[in-house]
Every structure is written in C-alpha cells, then in structure tokens.
Write a structure and sequence with these properties.
Strand 1 and strand 2 form a beta hairpin. The chain is an all-alpha fold. 74% of the residues lie in helices and 3% in strands.
Length: 159
C-alpha cells in the first residue's frame, strides 16, 4: 500500500476525522477519531443544524444545535486533520501545527459569537459562523509560523 499524500490526508480528514489515520494504518487513533466525531455529532445535533443552515433556516439551526457539545468539534476536527497531515509528511516541518490550532481556536470563538453574528443583515447561525472563521485561523496561524521560521533562520545565521 502506498503512503498518503498531504492533500489526500487533509481531504480524507475533511470527509470524516479518522479516515486518513485508518488509511495510514493507525487503526486505534483512527477509530478513536471516528468514534469521537460520531459522539460529538450526535450529541450536538450537528447534521440537523447543517441541514437547517443550508436550507436557509439559520435561526432554527441555532435552536437545534447543542453549542456546548459542538464547541468540542473544531478542536477534534482540526487535530485529526493536523495529525493526518503530519502522518503524510515525509520530514518534520517546524510549527506546522499553527494554522490548524488557530483555526480550531477561531472556529470555537465563531461558535460562541454565532448567536449575534450577521453579515448584510443575514443571520449566519452556528454553521456558517464556524465556516467563516476557518480562513482567518489558517491565515493567522500561517503568518505566525512564517514569522517564527524567519526569526529562527535569523537566529541560526547570527550564531
């Protein structure tokens, strides 16, 4: 069996946390991620809230969702994605976790503020608020990673 590429690892993790780990033969970790995903998904009524959101019923999605359970999801999702990416790496990359970690942080913050977030008068709800905060998390994490890598390179060149 061939090894996963970084893109495959991330895409399988987006499909379902734990799939990439299972494909990479990390069965215990993969099963743990899948079980946790199902547990959080069911306890938070996440799929029903997704359905309501995409049907334009974002207020109903907010009423449906159990935010206390859903707030675990970004951390699980991004951690499983980072882990899959790390498995697919052929060598260690410093600070590669930062875009994943900052996405988890900002999506969680987006979920906390989701009852109040609107854009152009459109109420975003918990699903679209979370989605909206992924990109800033990735960008901030990548910016901090770039700064740290440059700082480390300067420190190395000076010594």
């Amino acid at each position: 069996m061939r090894e996963l590429t970084k893109l495959e690892a991330v895409l399988w993790s987006i499909a379902l946390p734990g799939f990439a780990q299972l494909l990479a033969r990390s069965y215990i970790k993969g099963l743990l991620f899948v079980i946790l995903e199902f547990l959080i998904n069911v306890q938070s009524d996440f799929n029903l809230a997704i359905m309501h959101s995409f049907l334009g019923e974002t207020r109903l999605a907010m009423e449906t969702i159990n935010v206390q359970w859903l707030m675990f999801y970004p951390c699980l999702y991004m951690f499983a994605m980072w882990d899959a990416y790390k498995i697919a790496l052929k060598k260690e990359e410093p600070y590669i976790y930062l875009p994943f970690a900052f996405s988890a942080y900002l999506v969680t913050i987006g979920l906390m503020y989701s009852p109040k977030l609107t854009i152009f008068g459109f109420y975003l709800g918990p699903i679209f608020s979370g989605i909206l905060f992924v990109l800033p998390g990735v960008l901030i994490g990548q910016l901090i990673r770039t700064i740290l890598l440059k700082r480390n390179k300067l420190d190395y060149e000076e010594s």
